[in-house]
Specification:
Elements lengths: L1 E6 L5 E5 L24 E6 L5 H10 E4 L4 E4 L10
Antiparallel strand pairs: 1-2, 1-3, 4-5
């Protein structure tokens, strides 16, 4: 499923948005953060398995965007996280 994340130059995720047609509960969920104001903030499109509110919060807290692979990875690892 397609999702959009706002991240800074280090890949830290501040916001996640899932188009309404893909959201389990039928509405867009956005998790707010601080790095929209950070230098180098950008929006990237990623694929995620599902989009329930708790999943989006977990993604923001535990993952980061890796420019080299174009995927979400665990904050403390370089390899893509399974299922994200």
């Amino acid at each position: 499923m397609r999702a959009f994340v706002v991240c800074d130059e280090l890949g830290r995720i501040s916001s996640i948005a899932v188009p309404a047609e893909n959201f389990v509960e039928g509405e867009v969920e956005v998790v707010e953060g601080e790095c929209e104001r950070a230098r180098g903030a950008r929006v990237v499109q990623v694929e995620i398995d599902r989009a329930e509110p708790q999943d989006l919060r977990r993604i923001q807290q535990e993952l980061r965007f890796d420019d080299r692979t174009g995927r979400l990875v665990a904050k403390d690892e370089r390899r893509p996280l399974e299922g994200a």
